[in-house]
Hints:
Chain A is of the alpha/beta class. Chain B: This is 2Fe-2S iron-sulfur cluster binding domain-containing protein.
Amino acid sequence: MTRSDLVVVGAGPAGMAAAAQAAELGLSVTVLDEQACAGGQIYRDVDRVVPLRGDILGADYVHGTTLTAALRRAAISHVTGAVVWAIEDAFRISYTREGRGVQIEADRILLATGALERSMPLPGWTLPGVMTAGAGQILLKQSGVLARNAVLVGSGPLLYLIAAQMLRAGTPPKAMIETQSRGDLIGATRHIGGALRGASYLVKGLRMLASIIRAGVPRHTGVTDIAVEGTDKAEAVTFQSGRRSHRITCDTVFLHHGVVPNTQAARSLGVTHSWNTAQQCFVPQLDDWGQSDRAGVFIAGDGAGIGGAKAAEHAGTLAALQIACEAGRLSREERDRRAAAPRAGLAHELAARPFLDAAYPPYAPALLPDDSTPICRCEEVTAGDIRSYAKLGCIGPNQTKAFGRAGMGPCQGRYCGLSVTALLADATGRTPDETGYYRIRPPLKPVTLGELAGMNITAPDTAEKEKAHD
Amino acid sequence: MKTASPFLELDNEPRVNVVFDGNALSLPEGANLAAALMAAGVNVFRHTPVSGAPRGPFCMMGACFDCLVEIDGTTKQACMTVVTDGLEITRAHRDGALT
């Protein structure tokens, strides 16, 4: 079994920046990532794709090449196509690559597992053709595949970004169906100070919005009663805007109302999480360096709370400095000296976040959906099912599994976890922290018997016997 | 079964032949299988084991498991699979029977 000073899970901006910094300070670093190329979801396939369509995707995407370059330069073992499914003891990491199980040991681990789209359960959301906006972006980035007849539904800056990219590619969305209201924007103005400090985000957002309006893409804001119609696939989106009912036919629906930390790996390690009201999600409890309450477990990037790609890069660097300091490669003074720039950068990147969170809140009816709407896609458990379990005395997400299998399908609760917590909290009158979240256990991703059988391990007692015979 | 595709493909990679649910398709070699199937006009990737409802790709990042297909008897996430020549892909149906 190989051993590294540091194993980084995830090769997005936080993971790449952390790996580069730690390796520069003399640590042996292994980066495990599910994808075939470095970049994470935000910079997916960036090295291959920038020459093909960097112009469509924009300068923020092209920036990712600076991170992948640093990953290649430093003495880093970047393992692609590695699906991590267990992190145990301190620390043995198990993953699958090319159909075989592999294990690696590490003194410390950095979880840079990024974000998931916030689930947006509404009538018809499980139909083929309904995807996350992030999926739409991945289709464009990695595959150069664009939806010809799509509507964008929800709220948030990502919706404008994907619309702007679709415009540049020559396939404008058919309509923007936006859930944020004028009241949200007025309420957000109390965070205007931060917004002005992070003004570059606002300028970019306004530019994108201007290009969308200029192109004549119809925008509906403050919409309610959203539903997707169709039998075998999405055929139309219906909604209310003001007092008017609308129906827009389409082949593809991209949903988005924010992203949330992917906490599966951190939770499997017993890291304490708490509810963040502003971001309407659970975040891991961390110190200023990204150290969790589990010794040796660090978390950086959107998996630690949503801040975006640039913030993730700074947080990754900061975590690596502390990891190197703990490993005796860096004095505390030197750590603090080197931390000054990324800490200032991180504060700058996060300045506009409270404004954005308030101006583009989640679509409330998708946080507490109608009874008939499925919230667990895998096991097809509806919001009404969860409410009925609460009536029977179910007070926590782990109990809902016994009542009706919510969270027990192959996605392991990634897309229903926050919905179940919200529905139970609403039904019982308790807080999300009191209600809690699914207990996450390995395997974090499905593993086949063949992958286990092909594992590169030698049982300790066998190794001892072999030694004795030598 | 080339049907009208709701998607536009920017790239022009060399094509290879695969079979999806008994139908011959020509997909870009090395492409993401989920993206390539959608671009080829495939909407329904599978039917759920619970209610038989149709499903297609949702997250495109290996997290949701909605794009499951069967290849060589193994259930795989299409969005985490690369298109190679001669792939035989089967669509799982509600009762577990394969067409």
